[in-house]
Amino acid sequence: MSDEPTDTFPATERTTIGRSPLRGTRQRATANAILDEGLICHVGLTADHGPVVIPTTYARRGDELLIHGSPAATWLRSTGKGTPVCVTVTHVDGLVLARSGFHHSMNYRSVVVFGTAETVTDHGDKAAALDAIVEHIVPGRTPEIRPMTDDEITKTLVLRLPLAEASVKVRDGGPIDDDADYELPDVWAGVIPMTTTFGTPIDDERLLPGIDAPPSAVAYTR
Amino acid sequence: MSDEPTDTFPATERTTIGRSPLRGTRQRATANAILDEGLICHVGLTADHGPVVIPTTYARRGDELLIHGSPAATWLRSTGKGTPVCVTVTHVDGLVLARSGFHHSMNYRSVVVFGTAETVTDHGDKAAALDAIVEHIVPGRTPEIRPMTDDEITKTLVLRLPLAEASVKVRDGGPIDDDADYELPDVWAGVIPMTTTFGTPIDDERLLPGIDAPPSAVAYTR
Q1: What DSSP string runs through B37-72?
Q2: How distant is the Cα of A4 from the closest Cα of chain B, in angstroms?
Q3: Is the CB of B51 less than 8 angstroms away from the CB of A51?
Q4: Residues A5-37: tens digit of each pLDDT
Q5: Which of A32, A150, B34, B45 has the greatest number of CB atoms lying within 10 Å of its CB?
Q6: What is A13-93+106-173's CATH number?
Q7: Please, are residues B158 and B117 in contact by the beta-carbon 8 Å criterion?
């Protein structure tokens, strides 16, 4: 595949198989929107004893993911060649109640990224990546806080994963039932919508008097 | 380890390492509560080309997880000996805004289960497992719907994973800042709480007239 990103992800063996091809898309714009809305990803890697899946924070920067690697640090084998990973971000938007158990489903959006993650070693790159992760989670937060120290940057592990190969799935809408089941009397079917809401910021109990929550927190939304 | 479940998970090599031991617990009751609240898990396994992480539905039944394996079907290698997997369920409860980027965090609850998943082959077992998954997602739903057919049961893949080895982490409360940073003027710190809410059920557009949404949907909560 070309190094030049296009509007779509390439069709590779591991992104073309699966049981629901109709829900798949190759659009980068769709993937980017899912990734930008997400708060955590699930990072999968193969450790000595087998597969491990760890939740952690991340940010998308253009055509790469920057992953807070510290939670996965103990599992990463330092081969010098990077670590094969699979990083998945999933949003559940609703429960789909069909007329049969078989057709029950969820409305969801997911991106499954395959690739080789490398540790970000350059100090300046890493500082920028860590700021990007903070900004991904709380936009506008970095100018409000004490800047990171060199020691903090050194102690934190950041992984970089190119957004080059990904499987994107979106399911939306009501249940799809068997034809005969639509005539079943008394069986309700539909969708229970599900949303994430953010509440009023809670002051730290050691907050100095007279400091109000900033707009980044008060007006928080995703 | 004994076959007899105890109140706590055993300390194994892969459940004792990690960077935040203070957030860990071995209590099965805590793990069960996290698993019972969750809607989806992220299943990690090692395919021929490397790690894969797939979101899917599941249910806890006593000391085992029943996992809807169909989304992962194409990745499972039929070795006859089961498949080593890692299954993770994560809830994010809040964003923790500290006075430095380094101490930003999230309040979360996660269970990481390690083990070997086996396919449920017995037809009756599988039927019961599929009903358990529907009931896990929408309690009270199975009596409301058309029962599963033998063909549907045959076509669906269910994995069984013992809840024998798991890492449980819970973070709660406000930011933990460096001592000196508590004196920073003008830097707000605290928590943005995050909750999942379920809306009014939306009727399927092909719903027969006169069928109201049942209590399982109207009063849905987790």
Answers
A1: H-SEEEEEEEETTEEEEEEEEEEEETTEEEEE-GGG
A2: 24
A3: yes
A4: 788 898 888 887 555 555 778 899 999 999 999
A5: B45
A6: 2.30.110.10
A7: no
Q: Is the pTM of this model over 0.90?
A: yes
Nearest by CB to residue A19, choosing from B70, B190, B204, is: B70
Residue range B26-41: average pLDDT? 96
Indicate the pairing of strand A105-119 with strand A165-171. antiparallel
Helix or strand or coil: residue A43? strand
From the list B214, B102, B41, the residue with the least C-alpha distance to A142 is B102
The verdict on A114 touching B (C-beta cutoff 8 Å) is yes
Hey, is the C-beta of B128 within 8 angstroms of any chain A C-beta? no
Which residue is closest to A152 within chain B, CA to CA? Answer: B102
- pLDDT reported for residue A12: 87
Residue A1 is predicted with a pLDDT of: 45
CATH code of the domain made up of B13-91+107-173: 2.30.110.10
Cα–Cα nearest to B90, from A135, A56, A95, A48: A56
A-chain residues near B39 (CB < 8 A) = 92, 95, 106
C-alpha A29/C-alpha B36 separation (Å) is: 34
Domain boundaries, chain B: 13-91+107-173
Give me chain B's average pLDDT, please: 92
What CA–CA distance (Å, rounded) separates A125 from A160? 10
Please state, in angstroms and as integers, the Cα–Cα distance from residue B211 to each residue in A138, A174, A184, A185, following that order.
Answer: 44, 16, 10, 8
Residues of B in contact with A92 (CB under 8 A): 39-40
Query: What's the pLDDT at A8?
Result: 87
Window 164-193 of A, Cβ < 8 Å to B: 174-175, 177, 181-193
- Asked if A14's CB is within 8 angstroms of B88's CB, the reply is no
- Torsions phi, psi of B213, nearest 5? -65, 135
Query: What's the CA gap between B106 and B65, in Å, rounded?
Result: 26
How far is it between the farthest Cα atoms of chain B? 67
Chain B neighbours among A 11-70 (CB < 8 Å)? 13-14, 17-20, 39-40, 42-47, 49-55, 57, 70
How many other C-beta atoms lie within 10 A of the C-beta of residue B154?
Answer: 10
Would you say the ipTM is above 0.90?
Answer: yes
**CA A154 to CA A130: how far, in whole Å?**
11
**Size of the A and B interface in Cβ pairs below 8 Å:** 303
